[in-house]
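This part of the workshop introduces the protein records we will be handling. A record pairs a protein's sequence with a compact description of its fold. Comparing a sequence with its tokens is the quickest way to learn the format. The record below serves as our worked example for the rest of this section:
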Amino acid sequence: MVPFSCGKKEVKPVSQESKTAEEAFTLAESIREAFIKSDSDTLIKDSTENGFKDITSGSKSYESVELEFTPRWVDIEQTQVMVNIAWKSKWTLKGKQVEDRGMAVFVMEGKPLKLAKILRSNPFVVPEQ
């Protein structure tokens, strides 16, 4: 005799790590959109004081910016979440377009997560012409 079972697949609950990674990706996207729109209120809400300084310290005068983020990797530790983000930017400065790209590490802390600092190549720094 052969035992039969139902064809239903077991649904596993979403892990806490998956939820934390999703929150980190959502936060990075919120910061990207707020930067493009020059929405300081959202940038302040979504970052610590040091994180806000990292976002705004390299800002010079520019006419417009396009910024793309592609999350690559997430490290979740006890008190920090580190998101590796490949980024591309296109800045309009004095009528000229300047493109840049790099890899940044967004260090996030707290509940809810906030951007605490940016390591490696900061996507919010206006490139030299």
User: Anything to note?
Assistant: The mean pLDDT is 89. The chain is about 25% helix and 35% strand.
